Amino acid sequence: MQYQFGKTSRPDLPYQQQLAVGRKVASHFSGMLPALGICAGSQPAIEGRFHWQLAVLQQHLQQLPYLLSSSSPCIADFGLMGPLYAHLYIDPLPSYLIKCTVPLVADYIERACSIAPTSQPAGKDPIVALQPQHPQQPAEGQLHVGIIIICCLEGC
Q1: How far apart are CA 41 and CA 58, in angstroms?
Q2: Residues 57-93: pLDDT tens digits?
Q3: What is the per-residue pLDDT across 92-118, written as a single tens digit (0 to 9) for each?
Protein backbone atom coordinates (compact mmCIF):
# COMPACT_ATOMS: atom_id res chain seq x y z
CA MET A 1 0.00 0.00 0.00
CA GLN A 2 2.87 2.34 0.71
CA TYR A 3 4.04 1.93 -2.87
CA GLN A 4 0.55 2.88 -4.12
CA PHE A 5 0.67 6.09 -2.07
CA GLY A 6 4.08 6.90 -3.56
CA LYS A 7 3.10 5.96 -7.11
CA THR A 8 0.00 8.16 -6.91
CA SER A 9 1.84 11.07 -5.29
CA ARG A 10 4.91 11.00 -7.51
CA PRO A 11 4.43 8.94 -10.69
CA ASP A 12 7.55 10.57 -12.14
CA LEU A 13 9.92 8.92 -9.62
CA PRO A 14 11.55 5.48 -9.82
CA TYR A 15 10.17 2.65 -7.68
CA GLN A 16 12.48 3.04 -4.64
CA GLN A 17 11.80 6.76 -4.39
CA GLN A 18 8.06 6.20 -4.82
CA LEU A 19 8.23 3.71 -1.95
CA ALA A 20 10.00 6.29 0.25
CA VAL A 21 7.39 8.93 -0.58
CA GLY A 22 4.66 6.38 0.12
CA ARG A 23 6.09 5.56 3.55
CA LYS A 24 6.07 9.24 4.45
CA VAL A 25 2.46 9.69 3.30
CA ALA A 26 1.38 6.49 5.08
CA SER A 27 2.98 7.56 8.35
CA HIS A 28 0.83 10.70 8.27
CA PHE A 29 -2.35 8.63 7.89
CA SER A 30 -1.39 6.05 10.51
CA GLY A 31 -1.43 8.83 13.12
CA MET A 32 -5.14 9.28 12.42
CA LEU A 33 -6.10 5.73 13.38
CA PRO A 34 -6.81 6.36 17.09
CA ALA A 35 -9.25 9.15 16.22
CA LEU A 36 -11.12 6.66 14.03
CA GLY A 37 -11.33 4.17 16.90
CA ILE A 38 -8.80 1.84 15.34
CA CYS A 39 -6.48 0.03 17.71
CA ALA A 40 -5.26 -3.52 18.27
CA GLY A 41 -8.41 -4.31 20.28
CA SER A 42 -10.76 -3.17 17.52
CA GLN A 43 -9.24 -5.38 14.82
CA PRO A 44 -11.60 -8.38 15.35
CA ALA A 45 -14.69 -6.14 15.13
CA ILE A 46 -13.42 -4.37 12.02
CA GLU A 47 -12.47 -7.60 10.27
CA GLY A 48 -15.77 -9.24 11.24
CA ARG A 49 -17.74 -6.35 9.82
CA PHE A 50 -15.59 -6.35 6.67
CA HIS A 51 -16.35 -10.03 6.03
CA TRP A 52 -20.05 -9.60 6.83
CA GLN A 53 -20.42 -6.62 4.47
CA LEU A 54 -18.68 -8.49 1.67
CA ALA A 55 -20.96 -11.51 2.24
CA VAL A 56 -24.06 -9.28 1.99
CA LEU A 57 -22.77 -7.78 -1.25
CA GLN A 58 -21.91 -11.26 -2.60
CA GLN A 59 -25.47 -12.39 -1.82
CA HIS A 60 -26.92 -9.36 -3.61
CA LEU A 61 -24.71 -9.88 -6.66
CA GLN A 62 -26.17 -13.36 -7.05
CA GLN A 63 -29.42 -11.59 -7.97
CA LEU A 64 -28.19 -8.54 -9.89
CA PRO A 65 -24.86 -7.60 -11.47
CA TYR A 66 -25.14 -4.03 -10.11
CA LEU A 67 -26.64 -2.53 -6.96
CA LEU A 68 -29.97 -1.48 -8.46
CA SER A 69 -30.03 -2.76 -12.02
CA SER A 70 -29.42 -5.80 -14.17
CA SER A 71 -28.27 -3.75 -17.14
CA SER A 72 -26.10 -0.85 -16.02
CA PRO A 73 -24.46 0.75 -12.99
CA CYS A 74 -25.93 3.73 -11.22
CA ILE A 75 -24.39 6.43 -9.08
CA ALA A 76 -24.61 4.12 -6.04
CA ASP A 77 -22.33 1.63 -7.79
CA PHE A 78 -19.74 4.31 -8.42
CA GLY A 79 -20.08 5.61 -4.87
CA LEU A 80 -19.35 2.14 -3.54
CA MET A 81 -16.59 1.56 -6.06
CA GLY A 82 -14.35 4.31 -4.69
CA PRO A 83 -13.82 2.69 -1.30
CA LEU A 84 -13.90 -0.87 -2.63
CA TYR A 85 -11.31 -0.26 -5.29
CA ALA A 86 -9.09 2.45 -3.82
CA HIS A 87 -8.98 1.23 -0.23
CA LEU A 88 -9.23 -2.52 -0.71
CA TYR A 89 -8.82 -3.91 -4.20
CA ILE A 90 -5.46 -2.34 -5.00
CA ASP A 91 -4.06 -3.53 -1.66
CA PRO A 92 -2.73 -7.09 -2.17
CA LEU A 93 -4.11 -8.68 1.05
CA PRO A 94 -7.72 -7.44 0.91
CA SER A 95 -7.73 -8.01 -2.85
CA TYR A 96 -6.67 -11.63 -2.34
CA LEU A 97 -9.36 -12.12 0.32
CA ILE A 98 -12.03 -10.64 -1.94
CA LYS A 99 -11.00 -12.76 -4.94
CA CYS A 100 -10.90 -15.97 -2.89
CA THR A 101 -13.92 -15.58 -0.62
CA VAL A 102 -16.41 -13.43 -2.57
CA PRO A 103 -15.66 -13.88 -6.27
CA LEU A 104 -18.81 -12.08 -7.42
CA VAL A 105 -17.62 -8.99 -5.54
CA ALA A 106 -14.26 -9.24 -7.32
CA ASP A 107 -16.08 -9.53 -10.66
CA TYR A 108 -18.27 -6.54 -9.73
CA ILE A 109 -15.25 -4.37 -8.90
CA GLU A 110 -13.48 -5.30 -12.13
CA ARG A 111 -16.64 -4.83 -14.19
CA ALA A 112 -17.43 -1.42 -12.66
CA CYS A 113 -13.85 -0.23 -13.10
CA SER A 114 -13.88 -1.13 -16.78
CA ILE A 115 -17.03 0.77 -17.76
CA ALA A 116 -16.51 3.49 -20.35
CA PRO A 117 -18.27 6.80 -19.81
CA THR A 118 -21.52 7.18 -21.71
CA SER A 119 -24.28 9.69 -22.10
CA GLN A 120 -26.90 6.94 -22.24
CA PRO A 121 -29.39 6.84 -19.35
CA ALA A 122 -29.35 3.89 -16.99
CA GLY A 123 -31.59 0.92 -17.72
CA LYS A 124 -35.22 0.82 -16.68
CA ASP A 125 -34.96 -2.24 -14.49
CA PRO A 126 -37.16 -2.32 -11.43
CA ILE A 127 -35.32 -1.61 -8.21
CA VAL A 128 -34.66 -4.76 -6.26
CA ALA A 129 -34.20 -4.32 -2.53
CA LEU A 130 -32.07 -6.80 -0.66
CA GLN A 131 -33.03 -7.27 2.97
CA PRO A 132 -29.87 -8.77 4.48
CA GLN A 133 -29.89 -10.53 7.79
CA HIS A 134 -28.05 -8.25 10.16
CA PRO A 135 -25.59 -9.74 12.61
CA GLN A 136 -26.52 -9.79 16.24
CA GLN A 137 -26.80 -6.26 17.58
CA PRO A 138 -23.41 -5.22 18.93
CA ALA A 139 -23.03 -4.46 22.59
CA GLU A 140 -23.13 -0.82 23.61
CA GLY A 141 -19.87 0.87 22.68
CA GLN A 142 -18.81 -1.84 20.23
CA LEU A 143 -17.15 -0.43 17.17
CA HIS A 144 -19.22 0.17 14.02
CA VAL A 145 -17.07 0.81 10.98
CA GLY A 146 -17.37 0.57 7.23
CA ILE A 147 -15.22 -1.58 5.03
CA ILE A 148 -13.15 1.38 3.86
CA ILE A 149 -11.09 1.43 7.05
CA ILE A 150 -9.87 -2.18 6.97
CA CYS A 151 -6.75 -1.32 4.99
CA CYS A 152 -5.49 0.83 7.86
CA LEU A 153 -5.06 -2.19 10.11
CA GLU A 154 -1.95 -3.26 8.28
CA GLY A 155 -0.33 0.14 8.73
CA CYS A 156 -0.95 1.40 5.19
Answers
A1: 27
A2: 999 999 989 888 888 888 888 888 888 888 888 888 8
A3: 888 999 999 999 999 999 988 876 655
Per the rule left: phi > 0, alpha: psi between -120 and 50, beta: everything else, 121 is beta
pLDDT of residue 12: 92
Cα separation, 59 vs 135, in Å, equals 15
pLDDT at 117: 57
Measuring CA to CA, how many Å separate 2 from each of 58, 82, 92, 151?
A: 28, 18, 11, 11
Q: Which amino acid is at 142?
A: Q
Amino acid identity of 76?
A
Q: How far is CA 85 from the centre of its chain?
A: 5
- Which residues in 113-126 are b (16+ Cβ under 10 Å) and which e? eeeeeeeeeeeeee
DSSP type of residue 65:
S
How is residue 100 annotated by DSSP?
A: H
Residues in the chain: 156
Domain ranges of the chain: 44-115+143-156
